[in-house]
Amino acid sequence: MSSTQSDELERYTFTDEGPWTIDPDALEWTSGIDVIRSTVRRQVPELTSRRRIPPLRRLATVSAHLGMALGGWALRDRRAGGARSTAGLSRRLRIAAERLGPTYIKLGQIISSGEGLFPPELVAEFRKCRDQVRAEPWSTVREVVEADLGRPIDAVFSSFDRTPIAAASIAQVHAATLRTGEQVVVKVQRPTIRQQVEEDLRVMSWIAPFLIGRIPVAALANPPALVELFAETITEELDFRLEAENMLDVAEVFAQLGQRGFVIARPHPELVTRRILVMERLHGFGFEDLESMQSAGIDTVQVVRTGMSGFTEGCIVHGIFHGDLHGGNLFVLDDGRIALLDFGITARMTPLQRSAFLRLMLCGAMGDIPGQITAFRDLGALPADTDIDDVIRTLGLDQAPVDPTTMDQEQLVGEIQRIIKELLGMGARLPKILMLYVKNLVFLDGAIATLAPDLDLVGEISTLSTSLVATHGARFAEDLGVSTTDFRVDPEAIKAGLGVVDDSGDTLTYRELQRRRDTIRRRLESRR
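Predicted structure:
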């Protein structure tokens, strides 16, 4: 191994033997990338500000499809009430999104991975459109590749599969082989998607205020806030140079943290443009393919532990994490390492946000409720002038917690409605960083259910929290301005954070937690 290769593997969590070597100082496509990223961010307020006159032709098309969806729901499904009403609305909105094209399908895909943030009926419906985006024809793909690379496709690739591996709303992915013999994956952006996204965002921003309080989508992600959040995520996805930089930054952070259980594909040193991303091709097991992993001798419990520790440590130490974890964006290599894919949505925190996440983790493990509420405020979930003590009193957090499984149907529904009403009255909202974080927690929840259902959640969270403080205590103390020497994990606080209030001990397996959740779910569904 050359010194250059050794330096690369020390700096990044890449595969041990790559098809090329990354020298960050020699990457031409990174030139001016900080300016590109800041320019993209500055565009969001302009794209989401409500104009007097939106693009009229697109407005008419969108209004017609949404009008048909909402009208059909109001005339038929709404009368049924409860879950049937929400399911009917969800189905009609999903059909409208598919008819309106890639931008709306992308919005649906984000909603589809937001289990716990949106009604389950809406999540289930939009999952149906995740893989139902029509691929661009080969002639269009070839035109985009040749235009961005500035040469004939045959001059770069010895083979290029015309049928894509996957076709998503923003881009599609093809397997190919370079003229130099390396097997690669080529991500190709849809040629008109930028114009479509910008036009659709202007229309969404114009329509969203009319939908407030009219559709049961999500209490804390009202339509205007959802459009703003969507704009923040999708605009950065439209420049693949930003995605390639995200790949390098996350790989570098994992290396600095010693998180060698993760692998990031190398972007090509030269073949990256705004609309083209050529990267190393990796192979592995699907994240839900438990049987194959176990047959290969992979310790799936360790896979889960790797995912939990890497995600948490990246958040609170460096303030960066993959923002769209789902089964299609990662797989497990035959040596048990986790390969992460698709870095179009990557969360990057400000120093205040990272500090807030750090306090959220430490205070949650210690049972410090005022500290947790303050952290939520600093993340933007509550207005900056929020009175923390008033929030605690209003939500009843100063009272002994009640085990939700001991509540009857009326009590459960009443408590949920009360909390939502109080939060809305306080001006609560769902900021982008928090939504991405919660989405990933929901994915990790599902991964535990599949790969390690007997994992002791309290023990794992306690061990992870203690280890992080032991490793990074000096930095945490400097960031927070307080000493961490008195940090002590409170198992009961961890259980309470998971919705469990009992005296059954300091352990809680995922299987036990799921049984409790099923009990609560059945009661709520019965109420509906």
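Summary: The longest strand covers residues 171-178.
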